[in-house]
TrEMBL record:
Coiled coil segments of this chain: none
Pfam families the UniProt entry points to: HTH_1 (PF00126), LysR_substrate (PF03466)
Lineage top rank: taxon: Bacteria
Protein name, UniProt field: Transcriptional regulator, LysR family
CDD domains: PBP2_LTTR_aromatics_like
Taxonomic lineage of the native organism: Bacteria, Pseudomonadati, Verrucomicrobiota, Opitutia, Opitutales
Keyword terms of this UniProt record: DNA-binding, Transcription, Transcription regulation
Residue span(s) of domain HTH lysR-type: 1-58
UniProt organism field: Opitutus terrae (strain DSM 11246 / JCM 15787 / PB90-1)
Stated family: Belongs to the LysR transcriptional regulatory family.
GO cellular component: protein-DNA complex
GO molecular function: DNA binding; DNA-binding transcription factor activity
Length: 298
């Protein structure tokens, strides 16, 4: 159905006459009459009763009015939102993030955003990297904060490195490696590694394989953890090792210690990703508030 015909129909209903509706729409009365005849032809029945005093809705007209007015309203709202998005004029900001990284990297930027852009409504979603990537693709979030996925992310999204972080090894406090101040990759030969589900952390296990290959051994994975909590629990119950960025140390878990990897080439990338195309003003604002890149001390 032609939306212009519906808009003209509602203008006539609101004004009560073709003449007043024509003036409001800046068209001739004859043009408006032709539009209503076309709409009646499409529907298959009369929608107005015409008289010298104006027009009145028929039963068919009332049915059309009652059913289509809310639909047209929702369409106009959606169209307006799409146009604002195309112009980069959204007033809301949806951010996918990792809870473990939020306090150090995201919260200060959000505080700055509230001071400079108080009109922006922020919605935070604690999602795994895999969930964030899916949400970005579907347009459900505007910005993703995730780690070690840059190799394939940059082919699909705009990507910016937020930080390049040292890597730590999580081990049980009863593990023989817990007594060392630092560890090398070669020290992990023969250990069981906690992996991650490819759907939750794309590329994570392959990253571990590549690291261990540098030290000339092949890692053995005890399981793919469903979450960081699950991974840390497995470190204790299975005597396994877990590679994590330094911000993971903020999670105080009884029975677990973190030891830095001394290999200078082993780093964890913390990345920002957002959709290609026109960048909305709130996304620009939070990107400006976040650091471009920095390294964290061990």
């Amino acid at each position: 159905m032609n939306l212009d015909l519906l808009r003209s129909f509602f203008a006539i209903v609101d004004q009560g006459s073709l003449n007043k509706a024509a003036e409001r729409l800046h068209v001739s009365q004859s043009t408006l009459s032709r539009q209503m005849h076309a709409l009646e032809h499409e529907i298959g029945g009369r929608i107005f009763e015409r008289s010298a005093s104006g027009v009145a809705l028929t039963a068919t007209g009332h049915a059309l009015h009652d059913s289509m007015r809310p639909l047209l309203g929702r369409f106009e709202t959606a169209l307006g939102e799409a146009r604002r998005l195309a112009r980069g004029q959204r007033s809301d900001l949806r951010i996918g993030y990792l809870m473990s990284a939020a306090a150090e990297y995201l919260h200060p930027a959000l505080a700055a955003l509230r001071r400079t852009h108080p009109e922006v409504k922020v919605k935070l979603l604690d999602l795994s990297p895999g969930e964030q990537i899916g949400a970005l693709r579907r347009g459900e979030i505007d910005l993703a904060l995730l780690g070690n996925a840059g190799a394939f992310l940059s082919r699909e999204f705009f990507v910016r490195r937020l930080a390049l972080l040292p890597v730590f090894v999580a081990v049980a406090d009863t593990h023989p490696l817990a007594g060392r101040r630092t560890l090398a990759l070669a020290d992990l030969r023969g250990e069981l590694f906690v992996g991650a589900d490819e759907r939750d952390m794309p590329g994570h296990n392959q990253w571990i394989v590549q690291l261990c290959r540098r030290a000339r051994f092949r890692p053995r994975f005890v399981l793919d953890a469903e979450s960081l909590t699950h991974a840390l629990a497995t470190v204790v119950t299975e005597g396994a090792v877990l590679l994590q960025p330094d911000y993971a140390r903020s999670m105080k878990v009884p029975g677990i210690v973190f030891r830095p990897l001394q290999d200078s080439a082993v780093k964890w990338e913390l990345l920002l990703a957002w959709q290609r195309g026109k960048v909305a003003d709130p996304v620009r604002a939070i990107l400006a508030a976040l650091p471009t890149q920095r390294g964290a001390a061990g």
